[in-house]
Design goal:
The chain is mainly alpha-helical. It has a single domain, classed as Winged helix-like DNA-binding domain superfamily/Winged helix DNA-binding domain (Arc Repressor Mutant, subunit A, Orthogonal Bundle). The protein has 4 helices and 2 strands. It has a two-stranded antiparallel sheet with strand order 1-2. It starts with a helix and ends in an 11-residue tail after the last helix.
Amino acid sequence: MENELLNRITINSDICHGKPVIRGLRYPVESMLELLASGMSTEEILADYPDLVKEDLLACIGYAARLTQIKSIYKIAS
């Protein structure tokens, strides 16, 4: 099931400058994660974005979890 969810996340250089998005739509994973982190509930986000379903948001969370599994993290100069 996890891979099925992660398949909802797509990367295309012609969409949102190549950022990961949900199902090829112009909804960046980053934006959805920021909404969740701000305290919005899944239901509130889905009400604001009727093109999305609960599995899309779960896929965003799963994608973020996968990113934390990398072996090394380097600080980027700000």
